Amino acid sequence: MTTAQEERTTEDLKQLAEQAGRDLEDASALEILQWAAKTFGKRFCVTSSMEDAVVAHLASRAMPGVDVVFLDTGYHFEETIGTRDAVEAVMDVNLITLTPVQSVAEQDAEYGPKLHDRNPDLCCKLRKVQPLEQGLKDYRAWATGLRRDESPTRANTPVVGWDDKRQKVKISPIARWTQDDVDAYVTEHGVLTNPLLMDGYASVGCAPCTRRVLQGEDARAGRWAGRSKTECGLHG
């Protein structure tokens, strides 16, 4: 049987996203995810960098067994892989790990070692952007943990918007949250977080391109420090 959401055209989905962004601006994160679960069912997933499991936890409340997609770039901290494994073990989610076409060794053989130092945009494209695009191809909508207070480049993040690059509905249920809101949710629900967050890291990415932040820096300052690069390409 063909469902109504499978019959929607790309233009229908875009209009749906834009309307939902307006209608749900003041809704709670859980309400936004309940809308996503009802609207898209199994064609909705959550992506997680395993910096924390807040959105995955929220989504599991809205849709038990929800697909949670994790990108294993081959460059993650051990703590990040450990957080992923713990999330899979204790939460009501279906953990899906995506990997790049090439291993780190194969990439080094083709492009030379430490591509992340010489051409970080290409490294991110090969190890993050392309695997995610392939991994999301069967979904109509995906959720992220983007927050407006993280950096100036994320200040206008809609709670529901249109991902024009991938032609999908993009949901950021905690876009309006502050770090205090995140901390409060983690404490209230005992949500797993990456141990690196207790060791001076405010944003956790690949090990070669992530450092601890200094006092007064924004949460993203430890990513690609010393470069103009602020995003990996997944979100802009």
Task: Provide a descriptive summary of the structure in words.
This protein is α/β, with parallel strands linked by helices and 236 residues long. Helix content is 39%, strand content 11%. The chain contains nine helices and six strands. The protein has helices at 4-7, 10-23, 29-40, 54-62, 78-90, 104-111, 115-118, 120-135, 179-189; strands at residues 44-47, 66-71, 93-98, 141-143, 160-163, 168-171. A six-stranded mixed β-sheet has the order 3-2-1-4-6-5, with helices on both faces. Strand 5 and strand 6 form a beta hairpin. Helix 3 crosses helix 4. The chain starts with a helix and ends in a 47-residue tail after the last helix. 38% of the residues are buried.
Largest sheet: 6 strands, mixed
Contiguous uncertain segments of 5+ residues: none
Mean pLDDT: 91
Q: What level of helicity do the residues show?
A: 25-40%
Strand content: 5-15%
Strand order of the largest sheet: 3-2-1-4-6-5
**DSSP E strands, number:** 6
Separate helix tally: 9
Structural class based on helices, strands and sheet pairing:
alpha/beta
Order of helices and strands: HHHEHEHEHHHEEEH
How far do the termini sit from each other?
Answer: 36 Å
Q: What is the global morphology? A: globular
Radius of gyration: 17 Å
Outline of this structure?
The chain has 236 residues and is an alpha/beta fold. The protein has helices at 4-7, 10-23, 29-40, 54-62, 78-90, 104-111, 115-118, 120-135, 179-189; strands at 44-47, 66-71, 93-98, 141-143, 160-163, 168-171. The radius of gyration is 17 Å and the shape is globular.
